[in-house]
Amino acid sequence: MAGELIGKTAFVTGSGRGLGKLMAEKLAEQGADVILHDIDAAQPAKYGEYENLAAVEKDVARHGTRVMSVTGNIGDPDAVARMKAEIDVGFGEVHILVNCAGGDIGAAGGKPDPNNALDIPLADVRALTENNLIGTILVCQTFIPPMVKAGGGAVINIGSVAAHVGCSNGAIYATLKAAVVHYTRCLATELKEAGVRVNAVSPGPAKTARFEATRVTDPDKMNSQKISLDRYAEPGEIADAVAFLAGPRSKFINGQVLRVDGGMSLYPG
Predict the structure, then answer these.
(1) Structural domains for the chain
(2) What is the pLDDT of residue 131?
(3) Is the Cβ–Cβ distance between 77 and 103 less than 8 Å?
(4) Active-site residue, 173 included
C-alpha cells in the first residue's frame, strides 16, 4: 500500500494527538499531503504526547509529504469556514476527509459526571452534540461540495463500538456516534452518483494516551501480543482501517461501517 496516496491531500480533524494523529501519519506514510487539526495548538500536550501542534506537524512531515495544521472548534460554523479558507490558500483541494474530532468530553472539558442516560447535565448533552454530530456535519457540508464538483473523493467518519451496543455509562456519546454512523449511510446514498465515497470506522477501545489516562484499564487487555482478540486495540490498527478506506483498494466500498474492535460488537445488531 506504500505510495498509493501520492498526489492526494487529506484533512484529518482531531489529529493533534491520539487516534487522529496516527490516522494522519498513516496517510502521510502512503504519500498523502496532510492537514492536521485540533481545537487549539496546545491540545497535543494534554496527555503528554507532543509539546504542541507544531511538534506534531514536524513529526508527520518526516514521511516526506507536505504538512500544515489548522485550529478551531469544528462545532462553530465560522471556525470551520476559516479553516477551509486557510486550507484553500495553503494546500488547495482536499481529496480525503477524515472526521475524527469528538469524544466523550463534556462542557467542562472532561467526561460528563454523571454520564448516564437520565442524569447527564443538559450542558454536557449540548457540548457532546456539538463536538461529535454537529461538528461532523459542518465539516462535511464545508469540504464535500468541492469533491462533488471535482467528481470524486473519500470521506471517513469515525464512529465507535459504543454506537452499536446499548450502554449506560457514556449513553449520550454512544447515541451521537450512532447518529454519525447513520449520517454516514445517508451521505453515502446522497453522494454515490457524484463518485464521492463515504464510509465509517467504529473503533473499539484503543491504547491512546487519553484512554490510559482517563480509564481504569485491564492489564491483561493491554497485551497486544497474546493470541486472544479480547484486548485493547493498538492505535495503528485503527489507522490502518482508515487508510484502507481512503485508498484505491476500497474504490467500490461505499456506505459501510468497518468495526475495528476484535469482535467486541460481533453479536449485537
Answers:
(1) 9-260 (3.40.50.720)
(2) 96
(3) no
(4) yes
